[in-house]
Amino acid sequence: DQQVKQNSPSLSVQEGRISILNCDYTNSMFDYFLWYKKYPAEGPTFLISISSIKDKNEDGRFTVFLNKSAKHLSLHIVPSQPGDSAVYFCRRHGSSNTGKLIFGQGTTLQVKP
Amino acid sequence: SAVISQKPSRDICQRGTSLTIQCQVDSQVTMMFWYRQQPGQSLTLIATANQGSEATYESGFVIDKFPISRPNLTFSTLTVSNMSPEDSSIYLCSVEVDAWGEKLFFGSGTQLSVL
């Protein structure tokens, strides 16, 4: 059973501080992990990804870390901005058709001005 | 990338009726996906729609309840049939545009409320 889990349904941080969103997974094989951001009344949009051959991928204020031994990945947003307030989903993409379409439960991030 | 137009954006429907959601893509894509996001929940895949063949449904979803059409490579519809309040959700269509399928593109969603 290939799953990804986001155990924190919500997170609130102050503008300018770091936001850390977490995701745990099971049954790892060669995988590709992606983060999506979703605003209300909009579809999710791709944010950043990481291959399982890497430990870190950075894109501007967004960095994703992958800890393969712990089967854990995290998304860091530094500095956080009010416009980052959204729901964030992690997703795994694997070699099987089933694995490629699995999303976590989502974490609602609120960045307070 | 892909631009996806989904409509309606929202609707309020009566119990027992049906609603058809349309999804139009600005380029030809092989696979289109339909998702449901119930309140406070994750995105759940309903089915995969391939042009020229029957849609493939995930566990817990059946064709009689969620019939899907895929008449060509740029268009698909999802019908929510015989609706009940439990069907109140956001419904999203999605496509993958690269062979590896690492990046899904989504429509803006249909917010459905069933009274």
Summarize this structure briefly.
The complex is a heterodimer of chains A (113) and B (115). Chain A is built from no helices and 11 strands.
Question: What layout of secondary structure does this protein have?
Answer:
The complex is a heterodimer of chains A (113) and B (115).
Chain A: E1 4-5, E2 10-14, E3 19-25, E4 32-38, E5 45-51, E6 56-59, E7 62-67, E8 72-77, E9 86-93, E10 102-103, E11 107-112
Chain B: E1 4-7, E2 10-13, E3 19-25, E4 31-37, E5 43-50, E6 56-57, E7 68-72, E8 75-80, E9 89-96, E10 104-106, E11 110-114
Parallel strand pairs in B: 2-11
Antiparallel strand pairs in B: 1-3, 3-8, 4-5, 4-9, 5-6, 7-8, 9-10, 9-11
Shape of chain A: globular
Oligomer: heterodimer
Amount of helix of chain A? under 10%
Q: What would you report as the Rg of chain A, rounded to the nearest angstrom?
A: 13 Å
Q: Main sheet of chain A, how many strands, which sense, barrel? A: 6 strands, mixed
Number of strands of chain B: 11
Q: What percentage of amino acids of chain B are in beta strands? A: over 45%
In words, what does this structure look like?
The complex is a heterodimer of chains A (113) and B (115). Chain A has strands spanning 4-5, 10-14, 19-25, 32-38, 45-51, 56-59, 62-67, 72-77, 86-93, 102-103, 107-112. Chain A is an all-beta fold and 113 residues long. In chain A, the strands form 2 sheets. In chain A, strands 2, 4, 5, 9, 10 and 11 form a 6-stranded mixed sheet that branches. In chain A, strands 1-3-8-7-6 form a 5-stranded antiparallel sheet, with no helix packed on it. In chain A, a hairpin with an 8-residue loop joins strand 9 and strand 10. The model of chain A has no long low-confidence stretch (mean pLDDT 88). By secondary structure, chain B is mostly beta strands. Chain B has strands spanning 4-7, 10-13, 19-25, 31-37, 43-50, 56-57, 68-72, 75-80, 89-96, 104-106, 110-114. In chain B, the strands form 2 sheets. In chain B, strands 2, 4, 5, 6, 9, 10 and 11 form a 7-stranded mixed sheet that branches. In chain B, strands 1-3-8-7 form a 4-stranded antiparallel sheet, with no helix packed on it. In chain B, a hairpin with a 2-residue loop joins strand 7 and strand 8 (75-80). The mean pLDDT of chain B is 91. Classes of the chains: A mainly beta (113), B mainly beta (115). The A-B interface holds A 9, 32, 34, 36, 41-46, 49, 89, 91, 93, 100-101, 103-106 and B 4, 6, 9, 33, 40-43, 45, 92, 94, 100-109, 111.
